[in-house]
Amino acid sequence: VMGGSGKVGTALVNALKNAHEVQVVEVNGKPEAQKFDVLHVAIPWQGDFVSKVNAIVKEFKVGLVINHATVPTGTTKSIGPDAVHSPILGQHDDLENEIYMFTKWVGAQNEKAGRLAVSHLATAGLDARILGTPDDTETLKMLCLSRYLNDLAFYESAGKILDDLKVNRNLLNVWTKAYNDGYKGTRFSR
Q1: In whole angstroms, what is the distance from residue 41 CA to residue 155 CA?
Q2: For the chain, what is the radius of gyration of the CA atoms?
Q3: Which of 25, 71, 64 is nearest to 48 (CA)?
Q4: Distance CA 45, CA 173 (A)
Q5: Is residue 5 a contact partner of residue 26, using CB atoms and an 8 Å limit?
Q6: Alpha-carbon gap, residue 175 to 184, rounded angstroms
Q7: Sheet holding 64-67: strands in order across?
Q8: Cα-flanking dihedrals φ and ψ of residue 105, to 5°?
Q9: Contact 79, 50 (CB under 8 A)
């Protein structure tokens, strides 16, 4: 796991070590192994992201790269044809538990890499499935974060309005649940 000491890396290490031999590779560190079959990338995106990952791939003759980082569309494709993108879902404060609660989507550039990644993750007890290409999963993750930020902004504004008008905040939850219950059996939910 490249960058295994953060919340994402730690959750990945703990999930993977039950089924695989795992080593943590810090960006400027030197691991014991000379070759890695699979490299899990769990470092934050920054301008030199691809060059850092490719340096590890080259130095340690990595076969499959599974990029878990939230990155701009096109990043994983730049790593190489055997790189897949598998975004992290769940609250980072409890990711060691929540990593098992969400589907571990895999965006793959080719069927072989996709199947290998799904098998590797599933062996560790994760519900892994292919969902399009890395460009698809990178874009979907960015949209997911965008929606989350919009939801936070909405609820912050709603909370202020409710407080200013002295309306019990819990009533919004009751209202929303009843609203969604009225739409049961349809595709609509709020």
Answers
A1: 33
A2: 20
A3: 71
A4: 36
A5: yes
A6: 15
A7: 38-41, 64-67, 83-85, 104-108, 128-130
A8: -65, 145
A9: yes
Q: Is the dihedral of CA 30, 31, 32, 33 positive or negative?
A: negative
Q: Which two tokens stand for residue 175?
A: 């209202």
Q: Which two tokens stand for residue 131?
A: 């969902």
Residues of the chain with pLDDT under 70: 27-33
CB burial of 58-93 (b: ≥16 within 10 Å; e: otherwise) equals eebebebbbbbbbbebebbbebbebbbbbbbebeee
The pTM of the full predicted model, rounded to 2 decimals, is: 0.86
**Length of the chain measured in residues:** 190
Q: How many CA atoms lie within 13 A of 182 on its CB side?
A: 7
pLDDT in tens, 111-163: 999 999 999 999 999 999 999 999 999 999 999 999 999 999 999 999 999 99
CB-facing half-sphere around the CA of 171: CA atoms within 13 A: 9
Q: Which amino acid is at 47?
A: G
What span, in angstroms and rounded, lies between the C-alpha atoms of 3 and 29?
10
- pLDDT for 33 equals 65
C-alpha neighbours within 13 Å on the C-beta side of residue 152: 6
Contacts of 143 (CB under 8 A, 6+ apart): none
Cα 182 from Cα 176, distance rounded (Å): 10
